[in-house]
Amino acid sequence: MIRVVQDNYYGRRLHVLPIDDTIAGITENLFKIYLKPYFCETYRPVKMDDAFIVSSAMHTVAFKAIQIDSTPYYIAVPDTIINCQGDPIKREQTENTINQNVDHTTGGV
User: Fold this and answer.
1) In which domain of life is the source organism classified (predicted)?
2) Cα within 13 Å of Cα(79), Cβ side
3) Domains of the chain (ranges plus CATH)?
């Protein structure tokens, strides 16, 4: 679904968690290997409960936005503080969100 955003709000904080079955066997730092390169030097739209896929180090990890600033959507900018601390999310809790929100054709995903 495409929505017109009247105000461009740049987010200050973003909390995301990985989907549990996409991190099996990964021992690397998720922020350093996946999230930092994905968000660094970019302006990415983010919405609460968004699910997105990041490919790096020959592996794909799915993440879900579980907490954002007080607005329902914003643009994550290079200054946005990204937190990925917490237990991974079970696939069953996000299956519908991932199927609805993931666009495999844009953003190098």
Assistant:
1) Eukaryota
2) 4
3) 13-101 (3.10.330.10)
